[in-house]
Amino acid sequence: MILTGVLPAITAREKEFAVLQEKTGFIRAITTSFTNKSFTILLIAYLVIIGGVFSAGNLPLYINIFYVCGGDRVMAAAILGMSGSMMAMMSYVSLPLITWISVRTSKRFAMIAGLLLAAAGIGSTWWTMTPKWPYLQLVSTFIAGLGLQGCWLMVSSMTADVCDEEELLTGLRREGVYGAVLTFVMKAAIAASAILAGAVLALSGYNTESANTVGQIDPVVITKMRWLLIAVNTAPLLSAAVMFLFYPITRARAEQTQRILASRRQPPQNSVNDF
Known about the structure:
By secondary structure, the protein is an all-alpha fold.
């Protein structure tokens, strides 16, 4: 992480035209960000995705303990550990895949494809989280991770397009403000999801007293947990995919914006009259 994480700090340099621009007040910068239609759609979709992904809380743990592993908490913890590791490793597969899709189609299409792939992976847990083959659920993790991990890349990349359009309209580069707003929303969504996770668990009818006996839990509660795990995750992912259908920055529009900005940044050519 250290070796790969420091590469952007070493190789990336802020362009001079951005460094020398006039500073904008904090309140004005924030309010202006929310008037940008493209950024507003991106922000709301990002909030929905994070809220959905994290609101499932510990449902996978309870389902594994009391359904898949028959009360074996150690085995359930091991499976979840493998699942988490696989999700992290999928970044190295998902990022080039989503990048390949976005280059050949558009970022919007790549984001939608990633969200649909993630929803399909999570939806498949109805069949893969089974006592017969406990480790089969890792296939679902593979599919979900393949789509979901690349979505985080697309969010940042699409924010860069928003910043280009901002410069086109106002002449200012405001990556810092947009990045700060996205980070704040991410942290706020994760914090809210921690509260919602408890509500989702309670909605399933889970009772700590009845679960104290190893392997004993109402099958109706297990079924509710399985349905909630799928619904709470897939509904926001599919909703976000629909939102991105209305995301206005297409590939052609982004390329046109970049061409105009590049022409603006070119130094003026000396005319014959200058000599």
